[in-house]
């Protein structure tokens, strides 16, 4: 069983945007990545920093010295205290997937006759 908590309307959380909300007594970061919504516990498992207050960036890969590429643009959040990086979609730490932060289900619901911009975003937390 889960409780749903209102976050914003779709128009208020544009692609590439994030919002940090209090839901069920927890701080939660909600992200819009290319029109899909993801929610993470705003808590770095390392030492308890507000994870979602960190920079949102890309994943950098390299095939060797002097060569690098950016992938997963806007899908990585970096802890503001010690720069640990987490995948927003899965909650897993980039360099050690066994380390993770909690993720939550997100839903978008429309009410009455409305345009998509008025649809409401909800985070679902365990009861």
Overview of this protein structure:
The protein is mostly beta strands and 127 residues long. The chain has a single domain (2-126), classed as 3-layer Sandwich (Rieske Iron-sulfur Protein), CATH 2.102.10. The chain has no helices and nine strands. It has strands at 2-9, 18-23, 26-33, 36-41, 56-64, 67-78, 85-87, 103-109, 120-126. The strands form two sheets. Strands 1-9-8-4-3-2 form a six-stranded antiparallel β-sheet, with no helix packed on it. It has a three-stranded antiparallel β-sheet with strand order 5-6-7, with no helix packed on it. 23% of the residues are buried. The model is unreliable at 112-116 (pLDDT under 50).
Q: Any key phrases for this structure?
A:
2 iron, 2 sulfur cluster binding; single chain; mainly beta; Rieske_2Fe-2S; Rieske Iron-sulfur Protein; oxidoreductase activity, acting on paired donors, with incorporation or reduction of molecular oxygen; six-stranded antiparallel beta sheet; three-stranded antiparallel beta sheet; iron-sulfur; metal ion binding
